[in-house]
Design a protein that fits this description.
350 residues, alpha/beta, Nucleotidyltransferase, domain 5, Actin, Chain A, domain 4, 3 domains, five-stranded mixed beta sheet, flat
Length: 350
């Protein structure tokens, strides 16, 4: 630990929220220094990253759905875990180098947030990819724990704090007390499933095929969990599934809300299921402390109202919900000595 502290004077240690949709990197004293899509453009049939290994993040996302036959833009993480090891390693390496800059004499320590439902095999994959990507030491922290830290919740106290992190690939639900998770659920239903539900709605209702970026745009512009005061419409462009020709249709916020009903219902089920397993004393605390929402899904209009109705508890959206987990990894990194015993035993297991 002493040598690690000395080495850290010559490196840029970082906390990483390695998300299915976006990767955020946080550095002590600087806050969020990188926020880019978890997308990599490669030559089809190979793991060769384009543009000398720089077709990653924002550059690669612009290529989604628009690449010629010889190029494919892929997201190497699915449902919050690594689906393609080599491409994830290349992506992590690019982000680490971009943040670490020219200070390469000593490689950085890295804290990575992972879903609470991740398996031992998946943990080993994250460790290995990060180490090969250039990390000196790798530490893993469960996403809900990082989210609670990043939100400033009193998770170290002897009272319950509850966080719901609706990300791109997973929804993490956790009740925390005394710096540990006392009850949790991790489901692979989140923002991506909302996008897919919208895509399927466009196919069924309009015989129109739209791309992932168009589906995401519809979710952001028209998506809601409850009735809006001013219902809206928007023009959507895509490919006609019958004629194969480009065309546009007018879509309403009411129908987008209806298409999101199923994934939202599964998220609410995970929340209520976690509450049902909660210890009575912790449940009593939650009557006062309520539930905190973070992640991109927390920005869906009316989601906190619907969750409050389903649980009977107060539901609040944290400040800057998109960067909550990344901020938590940075704070975790600053206080590694407090977590050293659990970190070392956890690493030895994998």
């Amino acid at each position: 630990m002493l040598f690690d502290s000395l080495f850290s004077m010559f490196s840029v240690d970082m906390g990483i929220d390695l998300g299915t949709c976006n990767t955020l990197v946080c550095v002590k004293g600087e806050g969020i220094v990188l926020n880019e899509p978890s997308v990599v453009a490669v030559r089809k049939g190979t793991n060769h990253v384009l543009q000398n290994g720089n077709a990653v993040g924002l550059v690669a996302k612009e290529m989604l759905g628009k690449t010629p036959g010889s190029i494919t833009a892929i997201r190497p993480l699915k449902d919050g875990v690594i689906a393609d090891f080599d491409i994830t390693e290349a992506m992590l390496g690019y982000f680490i180098r971009k943040v670490h800059g020219s200070r390469r004499l000593v490689r950085p320590r890295v804290v990575i947030a992972v879903p609470s439902g991740i398996t031992a095999v998946e943990k080993r994959a994250v460790y290995g990819s990060a180490e090969r990507a250039g990390a000196r030491r790798v530490y893993l922290v469960e996403e809900p724990m990082a989210a609670g830290i990043g939100a400033g919740l009193p998770i170290a106290e002897a009272r319950a704090s509850m966080i719901v992190d609706i990300g791109g690939g997973t929804t993490e639900v956790a009740i925390m007390s005394l710096a540990d998770i006392t009850g949790s659920d991790s489901i692979r239903v989140a923002g991506d499933d909302m996008d897919e539900a919208i895509t399927n709605h466009m196919k069924r209702t309009y015989n129109m095929q739209i791309g992932p970026q168009s589906a995401e745009m519809l979710k952001i512009e028209l998506g809601s969990a409850t009735t809006l005061e001013d219902e809206r419409t928007i023009d959507v462009r895509g490919r006609d599934m019958i004629s194969g020709l480009p065309r546009k249709s007018v879509v309403t916020s009411q129908e987008i809300r209806e298409s999101l009903r199923e994934p939202i219902s599964q998220i609410l089920d995970a929340v209520t299921h976690t509450l049902e397993k909660c210890e009575p004393e912790l449940a009593a605390d939650l009557v006062d402390t309520g539930i905190y929402l973070c992640g991109g899904g927390a920005l869906l209009s009316g989601i906190e109202t619907l969750m409050a109705d389903a649980t009977g508890l107060t539901v609040s959206v944290v400040d800057d919900p998109l960067s909550c987990v990344a901020r938590g990894t940075s704070v975790y990194l600053e206080n590694l000595s407090e977590w050293q015993d659990s970190l070392e035993s956890d690493r030895d297991d994998y």
